[in-house]
Specification:
This protein is 31% helix and 21% strand. The model is unreliable at 1-12, 27-36 and 1108-1192 (pLDDT under 50). The protein has 1192 residues and is of the alpha/beta class. A hairpin with a 4-residue loop joins strand 40 and strand 41.
């Protein structure tokens, strides 16, 4: 780049005088000299017959063309109107002369010895097509020409054969013509276009006057530059520049998380759209004054604003975009045509809460340094940095910013040229922002990938940028985070309308009141089914009333907290409903929790009474509580069956559910009847359960989803179907239950839904009408697969925390709405709930911008039981409500508003907003539907005597599944066995909170300000263990499936599934694959009791699950193995079917239907012992006998 050159036409930037002086000093070797550098590029030797290598910039364009042939982003088209006496012949000769002067315009490309090289053709005249459209109106001709130019730009361009620049002249009248030009970027950049017009203007004027070309010969050609660049790149000067870029981009992020509307494809098509805008002169004047006052340039102010926009949109504090440099780093290059422009990665790291002028100072320094080292081509920077390469995104940056454009109209003698169509809309990046001065105004455009953004999203981003520019001009000393971006439409129309959710519900506003009302309507209908037992509404009501009267006698009433410790059963439902009828609030105590955790919860709520099943009585400390057995009929025999008089009202507590707590202890969340009543009434109004519906209840009562699973069907007169205890982990059992009980409605966490979709026979669940998903982020691929394979069933994505009565938003996953989505949104607020996306000062953020999600309205819980400080921190005064005492719950979730991707007709007029979940702002995670505070696990780890310091993070294994990983620094002189450590953790934490791997570190990584750097925690490695390799076909098949599910290269037969990264959901996935891939009956119980391949193989054989009898026995001819005999002591029997055909079957396995066992003395089967070999790879045979020993 020439410092004194106005490089706007090349897309570079303009600097202040002091900037120019600094850059010049950096560039000149003499330090204090201001002399122009001597030319250092010379012509190639004429004797050099080898085609010159393509320059670095040409290599980039060549590579992109190979990756995306004929992409629109690789060429530019222009259409000009020419008014005046146009000498077409002089113009044609002038173009030919420019082509003669510049080899680049006669160059094509070919691979020679594995490298792209420049093939420079000899000059010869080329005619420019002249098209006569004088019979058309001007308007029609210009419209036709525009379409024609677009088609030509889309057409194929062969880099090997050319031509790479095409031109047409269209005659409309003697004094009006159109000129269309389409060119490939490999031969041209924007400064080259200025050179082209400058030379053509001078030559055209001379030729039209009958004079020769006035231009002197060129000192060098573009190919000479390419040869010089190749030799320069390894010089000490170049190495110093390259080292700067290595330092500057070390650890840079690979992407910026923008609000994409569509999932990123494996490769961008290059098809783009363009949205233009104008920054008014009064704003521009203040921005220029700001630049001058901070010793900066307008470009730097614009770039800082753009980086601020990206920071606000993405939440990423480390931003890298590219800005163009002219690339003409030597004086002799300035008059050449060719592809010189270089893209410089500009990195901004935002810490704290800087004001705009503070951030401007940083961007100024970074930009100056970048342009001082612009000599290194981007291609070389990429090679030196070696970032991860992926065809779906550009390495180092995906966003470009050009703040120095000035598209001045070209000159051609006395003719007037007006640009009718020009400038690219296509782009190979996510976004390309371009701004340039026209007079006193700034004209700008965002080019964006149509593969990623909808037009309305890009349009809103432009409006936010314009608003932000005006705010910067108004008060540059404000923190960037507080500069307004929101438009008036968003503030006063859209966001208030999207939170207008008021609905007036009638009827009893308590859970038990709703159910008593339903009992009166349908007393004889079946209320719930558990295995082979059904209970009517009247029977359920009577049983719950007995419990309620007994509890009343023990002093239970409003605000009394009663523990309930029972497995999923009829007794559990009776206990929960009985507590509510007594006026109390239930506290579910999960029997699968460690005894210490249950004891803490009972003590924390000071439960005067705990309801249990008799076999679980030992889990509950009885010192301070009365413990009653729900399944002891004698306990309740004398109690009344009439409804007790109501004592609890809508604002009394209904339940307290405990969630993970960051202090090392769980925290209780008390919810009122009014909150959950509103939730159930919305659900019934929306989904309309009826008497013919059956709702599956499979969520443990200790999780909030269970609340609506229990009480929604009972409120609506439907049938509640209870899964057996532990059945929620068995996809095959759930499938059979859905089919046999004709279930219409079920809930799945998304990860379990993915496993359920893998289960053979999923499509047989023909009665399933609706599936509710919540608990964790729903992957678009899982949603799309469900709606494709279950066209008769609806899928709904719900979101909500325990602190807001289960769910607060919902989105219907309609097939057309899922098309191309990166991630399904969590929807808009349900009735009488409000959702706000706010910044740290409780200001609403613009649509599309990330912030923290806050919840207001009817469902907000009271706070945390016995934790006033935490309650005050997370439940804050509602600044948007006029109700006295109204509060918002801070979810800790990052989210943003966006427009509904595909609104349904039922959504009504006007744009509809939905919330998109972005992750967490703290260290809480959702894993397989479980809400986990990493701090709670860390606190328990830190109490272990072997551990000095600890951290916990979520990491992916080799198959994309997430797992908890514990990182520990050991106490001095201590060692730790990961298995024993997990066992000790299991004494205080539930199974779902136990880390899947333990990594021992010398020290925990820290950020520069001394905080734990979670991103720097290493991924766990699972080195090969010393266990035994598989010995049999059965073990080999199981080892392969273990490794596949866990994402490991190998697994031995002695590896414990749950100690090498496995967890309950992965276990369900493994069981499903054992069933579907191997045809072997396997239950979750089998894996949990036998977590190694060696023990699982034996267990499956002993249970009769191996091989897949159902498939084999349906054949009329039985199949046996013919492998060599291993165990001469194995006892076998001969099986004969009814048709007299023979085969073999190991003794001890169940006899298949239609077969009888016939023992023969001394018979031995010529097949392997069933414990040692799998029953696969078989072929039909008749009877095979083994008489005495292998030698026979």
């Amino acid at each position: 780049m020439s410092i004194d050159d106005d490089t706007a036409t090349a897309g570079a930037v303009r600097f202040s005088d002091s900037d120019r002086a600094r850059l010049l000093k950096l560039r000149l070797s003499g330090g204090g000299s201001t002399a122009t550098p001597e030319p250092v590029i010379s012509r190639r030797p004429s004797a050099d017959s080898d085609p010159p290598l393509a320059s670095f910039a040409q290599q980039r364009a060549w590579f992109f063309e190979q990756m995306a042939p004929n992409s629109e982003s690789s060429r530019t088209s222009y259409l000009w109107r020419i008014t005046g006496a146009f000498d077409v012949a002089a113009f044609e000769r002038g173009v030919d002369e420019v082509r003669r002067r510049h080899d680049a315009l006669r160059t094509t490309f070919a691979m020679v010895d594995g490298q792209p090289r420049q093939l420079i053709a000899d000059w010869q005249p080329v005619a420019i097509p002249l098209v006569n459209w004088s019979d058309r109106t001007v308007e029609q001709a210009e419209a036709d020409a525009a379409r024609w130019t677009e088609r030509e730009a889309e057409g194929p361009y062969d880099l090997t054969t050319g031509p790479l620049m095409r031109m047409w002249v269209i005659r409309l009248s003697p004094d009006r013509h159109l000129l269309a030009i389409v060119m490939h970027h490999i031969m041209f950049d924007r400064m080259s276009l200025g050179v082209f017009w400058s030379e053509l203007s001078a030559i055209y004027a001379a030729f039209a006057a009958g004079e020769p070309s006035p231009l002197p010969p060129l000192p060098i050609q573009y190919a000479d530059y390419g040869v010089w660049q190749e030799s320069w790149i390894d010089t000490p000067e170049a190495v110093e520049h390259r080292e700067y870029w290595r330092r500057q981009l070390a650890g840079a992020p690979q992407s910026i998380d923008l609000p994409f509307d569509y999932a990123r494809p494996s490769q961008l098509s290059g098809v783009g759209l363009r949205v233009e805008f104008v920054v008014p002169a009064n704003v521009v004047a203040r921005l220029r004054a700001l630049a001058s006052s901070r010793d900066s340039s307008l470009f730097m102010v614009l770039l800082t604003t753009f980086h601020s926009l990206l920071w606000r949109y993405s939440g990423n504090s480390d931003i890298v975009t590219a800005s163009p440099a002219a690339g003409r780093i030597r004086p002799e290059l300035e008059g050449l045509i060719g592809h010189f422009v270089n893209q410089l990665p500009i990195r901004t790291r935002i810490t704290g809460d800087p004001t705009f002028v503070e951030l401007l100072a940083q961007v100024r320094e970074t930009a100056l340094d970048a342009y001082a080292h612009e000599d290194v081509p981007l291609e070389r920077i990429v090679l030196d940095i070696a970032p991860p390469r992926d065809t779906s995104f550009n390495p180092l940056f995906q966003i470009a910013f050009d703040g120095g454009r000035e598209d001045n109209p070209p000159k051609l003698g006395d003719l007037t040229l007006e640009l009718l169509q020009g400038g690219d809309s296509a782009t190979s990046l996510d976004i390309q922002a371009e701004l340039g001065l026209r007079g006193e105004e700034l004209f700008g455009a965002f080019r964006y990938s149509r593969d990623l953004f909808r037009p309305e999203t890009a349009d809103r981003m432009v409006r936010h940028f314009s608003t932000l520019l005006a705010a910067v001009a108004e008060d540059p000393h404000r923190p960037v985070s507080q500069l307004p971006m929101m438009t008036d439409e968003e503030r006063h129309e859209l966001l208030p309308a999207w939170n207008d959710t008021r609905v007036d519900y009638s009827g009893p506003a308590t859970l038990h009141g709703l159910i008593e009302q339903q009992v009166a309507r349908t007393p004889g209908a079946v209320a719930l089914t558990f295995e082979d037992r059904s209970v009517s509404y009247a029977e359920l009501n009577a049983m719950a009333n007995r419990v309620a009267h007994r509890l009343r006698a023990l002093g239970v009433g409003p605000e009394t907290l009663v523990g309930v410790c029972a497995e999923r059963s009829i007794e559990l439902v009776v206990g929960l409903l009985g507590v509510l009828k007594a006026g109390g609030a239930y506290v579910p105590l999960d029997p699968e929790y460690p005894a210490d955790r249950i004891a803490f919860m009972v003590a924390d709520v000071a439960a005067p009474v705990v309801l249990v099943q008799e076999h679980l009585r030992g889990l509950v400390p009885a010192a301070d509580s009365t413990v009653l057995s729900l399944d002891d009929d004698a306990e309740w025999a004398g109690e009344r069956v009439a409804n007790p008089a109501p004592t609890a009202g809508p604002d009394h507590l209904a339940y307290v559910i405990y969630t993970s707590g960051s202090t090392g202890r769980p925290k209780g969340v008390p919810n009122t009847h009014r909150g959950i009543w509103n939730r159930l009434e919305w659900m019934q109004q929306t989904y309309r359960l009826g008497a013919d519906d059956a709702v599956l209840q499979k969520t443990p009562a200790s999780f909030d989803v269970s609340v609506w699973e229990f009480f929604w069907p009972l409120r609506a007169g439907a049938r509640l179907v209870l899964a057996r205890p532990g059945g929620q982990k068995d996809a095959g059992y759930l499938r059979d239950l859905l089919i046999s009980q004709r279930v219409t409605t079920a809930h799945f966490v998304p990860s379990m839904l993915a496993v359920f979709l893998d289960e053979a026979g999923f499509e047989d669940c023909a009665t399933l009408r609706r599936v509710i998903c919540s608990g964790e982020e729903l992957p678009a691929a899982v949603a799309a697969e469900f709606v494709r394979r279950a066209p008769g069933s609806e899928l709904h994505n719900l979101y909500g925390p325990t602190e807001a009565a289960v769910d607060v938003s919902a989105w219907h996953c309609r097939p057309e709405a899922l098309t191309g989505l990166a991630s399904p949104p969590i929807g808009g607020p349900i009735s009488n709930l409000r959702l706000y996306v706010l910044d740290g000062r409780l200001n609403q953020v613009p649509i599309g911008v990330g912030g923290e999600l806050y919840i207001g309205g009817a469902g907000v819980a009271r706070g945390y039981h016995g934790r006033p400080a935490l309650t005050a921190e997370r439940f804050v005064a509602d600044p948007f409500s006029i109700e006295s005492g109204a509060r918002l719950y801070r979810t800790g979730d990052r989210a943003r508003w966006r427009l509904e991707p595909h609104p349904a007709e039922s959504d009504g007029p006007g744009p509809r907003g939905v919330i998109e979940f972005l992750g967490r702002v703290d260290q809480q995670v959702k894993l397989r539907g479980f809400r986990i505070e990493l701090g709670e696990i860390e606190a328990v780890l830190a109490r272990d005597p072997a551990v000095d310091r600890a951290a916990v993070a979520v990491r992916e294994n080799g198959v994309g599944d997430k797992m908890l990983v514990a990182y520990v620094v050991l106490a001095a002189g201590r060692e730790v066995d990961p298995t024993e450590l997990r066992q000790r953790l299991g004494n205080e934490l539930p199974q779902y909170m136990l880390p899947g791997a333990v990594v021992v570190l010398d020290r925990l990584p820290l950020t520069p300000n001394g905080k734990l750097d979670r991103l720097a925690l290493p991924n766990p490695e699972f080195p090969p263990t010393e266990g035994r390799p598989p010995r049999t076909e059965a073990e080999r098949a199981l080892c392969a499936l273990f490794a596949e599910v866990l994402g490991r290269d190998t697994v031995t037969i002695d590896d414990n599934f749950f100690e090498i990264g496995g967890h309950s959901l992965l276990g369900v996935r493994l069981i499903t694959r054992i069933r579907t891939r191997l045809g072997v009956g396997c239950r979750p119980f089998d894996l949990f009791r036998n977590p190694t391949v060696a023990t699982l193989a034996v267990a499956l054989h002993r249970s009769g699950g191996w091989p897949g009898e159902a498939a084999s026995f349906s054949e009329t001819r039985f199949i046996a193995m013919t492998n060599p005999f291993d165990d001469p002591n194995g006892t076998y029997v001969v099986l004969v079917n009814e048709e007299g055909q023979h085969s073999l079957w190991p003794e001890g396995l169940a006899t298949p239907a239609g077969w009888e066992v016939v023992h023969g003395p001394g018979d031995r089967a010529a097949c392997l012992d069933h414990v040692e070999r799998t029953w696969t790879d078989m072929r039909p045979l008749s009877l095979v006998r083994r008489l005495t020993s292998p030698s026979n």
